[in-house]
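Renewal narrative, Specific Aim 1. Our central claim is that a sequence can be written position by position from structural information alone. The example that follows is taken directly from our test logs and has not been curated for this report. It begins with the structure tokens describing the chain, in the order in which they were read.
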């Protein structure tokens, strides 16, 4: 299945892509399988979305699919059918942090 992935601008620049990334995933569509395919297609992204040693999501990135936050559900949770069919993308979003102005 072709999965669409929206990346933050700095990761698109690193991967030298404009717009969405599209990757092929065999079997279950989970954050892990999508990111495995993304890193295989764009090896320069290894370690930018997931930690090298643990494979866990980096602290300042979030995953959204079908208007739901999948960031804390684990890497092996099934993504929605709309993402698996390529109707909607998996969004990789840089977390926004701040304080008082």
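The sequence written for that structure reads:
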């Amino acid at each position: 299945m072709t999965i669409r992935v929206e990346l933050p601008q700095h990761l698109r620049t690193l991967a030298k892509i404009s717009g969405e990334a599209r990757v092929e995933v065999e079997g279950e569509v989970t954050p892990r399988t999508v990111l495995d395919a993304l890193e295989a297609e764009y090896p320069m992204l290894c370690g930018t979305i997931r930690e090298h040693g643990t494979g866990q999501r980096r602290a300042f990135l979030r995953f959204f699919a079908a208007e739901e936050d999948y960031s804390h559900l684990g890497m092996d949770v099934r993504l929605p059918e709309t993402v698996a069919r390529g109707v909607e993308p998996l969004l990789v979003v840089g977390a926004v942090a701040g304080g008082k102005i």
